[in-house]
Amino acid sequence: MSIRFTASARRGMVALTLATGLALSAAGCGGGGGDDDKASPSASASKDSGSKPSAQEGQAETPLAELKGTDGLLLQVTSAQRDTGGFVTVSGNVKNDGGESVAIPAQTSGDETEVIKHGQSLGGATLVDSKGKKRYYVLRDTDGRPLTTTGLTTLDAGQTLPVFMQFPAPPASTTDVALQLPTFSSGTIKISG
Predict the structure, then answer these.
(1) Which residue has better confidence, 38 or 62?
(2) Whole-model pTM?
(3) Which terminus of the chain is less hemmed in, N or C, by CB atoms within 10 Å?
């Protein structure tokens, strides 16, 4: 009875954590309120597209930073948004600029056993606040899964993959941080929001 209760409670906590995260994400993406009948055409278009990102979501004309990786891999950071839930979401694209297929290096997952057991990810990424002298690691859920893009494998030549990473938010006064990802160069990004 005790083991069943513990397992049931653990599943409930995971579900609650995921539901809270989704609710916070939805609240952060919500508009300024208003009538659904008076929604702008771009708002209607994003509703109809389901989970597919629009051409503008997660992309900026000029990337905040470009981190060069091994074998022609390139991480283009397009946004670093501070959310009301106390975290920062860094979004961008991993692109294979090389002429051949390239496997995403396993080192991008980091070296924490708890993160590695959930598969290939960007769980090894960190934000470094040099003024505050703090390092922020990718957030994890209660089961140790990193809150970042997972299931990374191989990119064909010229292929681009949208990615994200969530970190605890540095103090509001901190706007410039260094993004570090194993096997990639480091880059300074500006946090907005």
Answers:
(1) 62
(2) 0.67
(3) N
Average pLDDT over residues 167-181: 94
CATH number for the domain formed by residue range(s) 58-190: 2.60.40
Q: pLDDT tens across 62-92, in order?
A: 889 999 999 899 999 999 999 988 999 999 9
> Using H for helix, E for strand and C for coil, what is the string for the chain?
CHHHHHHHHHHHHHHHHHHHHHHHHHHHHCCCCCCHHHCCHHHHHHHHCCCCCCCCCCCCCCCCEEEECHHHEEEEEEEEEECCCCEEEEEEEEEECCCCCEECCHHHHCCCHHHHCCCCECCCCEEEECCCCEEEECCECCCCCECECECCCEECCCCEEEEEEEEECCCCCCCEEEEECCCCCCEEEECEC
- pLDDT of residue 41 exceeding 50, the answer is no
Q: C-alpha angle 123/184/87, rounded to 5°?
A: 40
The pLDDT of residue 168 is: 95
